[in-house]
Amino acid sequence: MSITVKPVTPDFVAEISGLDLAQPLKPADRDAIEAAINRYAIVVFHDQKLTDDQQIDFARHFGPIHSSAQRARHTGIKHRLPSNEIADISNLDGDSNVLAPDSKRRLDWLANRLWHTDASFRAVPGALSMLYAHAVPDEGGDTEFADLRAAYDALPQTTKDQIEPLIAEHSIWHSRGQLAVTKYTEEELKSLPPVPQRVVRRHPGSGRKTLYVASHASHIIGMPIADGRLLLMDLIEHATQRQFVHSHTWKQGDLVIWDNRCTMHRARPFDTTEVRDLRRVTTRDVASTVEQAA
After folding, report:
1. At residue 71, does pLDDT exceed 70?
2. What is the dihedral of CA 22, 24, 29, 33, to 10 degrees?
3. Contact between 116 and 255 (Cβ < 8 Å)
4. pLDDT over 60 (residue 108)
5. Has this prediction a pTM greater than 0.90?
6. Can you give the pLDDT at residue 78?
7. What's the confidence (pLDDT) of residue 105?
8. How many structural domains compose the chain?
9. How far apart (Å, rounded) are the C-alpha atoms in residues 69 and 122?
10. Among candidates 195, 171, 203, which has minimal Cα distance to 39?
11. Which end of the chain has fewer CB within 10 Å, C or N?
């Protein structure tokens, strides 16, 4: 094994060095990376040089890849990246120009500044996300991550008992609606229908119980909508206290992997006249959380 794992904190976020991810990944290194993800939930690689195809090839070592939902909710526009396996997390249009302030894709993209977990709005949600920095602004644009395992552990037992059986409905349109971004076609709306997901799940790699909440979570099924939304808001507020949050300041060449099954994240503001070009590949979980053991 050729890698070095350096924890940022004892249980959350680690930096991994000693690997050129553009090269074929050895089985032992792949297993060591997975073990680090199971332990720390987020791992960071610095000074990488990856093409889109190399990033996709690396991601395949950790599971099947989710097709990007961007094309489903942005029909009739020119997309900058040719592969449907990589999501364009940038402020650039199809011609690599900075998006206009009133651009539909820019307004949709602003929802990344809400606390969320990738692809929880899909029946089989996201597992690992791998975000690679091609270009970053001079300042701002950090990504914050919340440790939902530690947040769950810190809940009172009465709350744990209350939320254990609960199922929330997740919809990407709910998160966009929070920012009054609602101008989607019927075809786009039908392409990503709401799905149920557990509020509490057990992480398969570590065996730890974890919250599974996000801005995509609209309400609790079987509970009055107002009550369910207030409960979800309380859980997100609890999970994003400073003791559970790590902020990553991006540098060109960074690849950050996070485990969507036990974290939330959000982008932070930056000068959007500057280019911020990050690209994400997300692997699929094995099944809906409702079908997995809690």
Report:
1. no
2. 50
3. no
4. yes
5. yes
6. 80
7. 87
8. 1
9. 9
10. 203
11. N
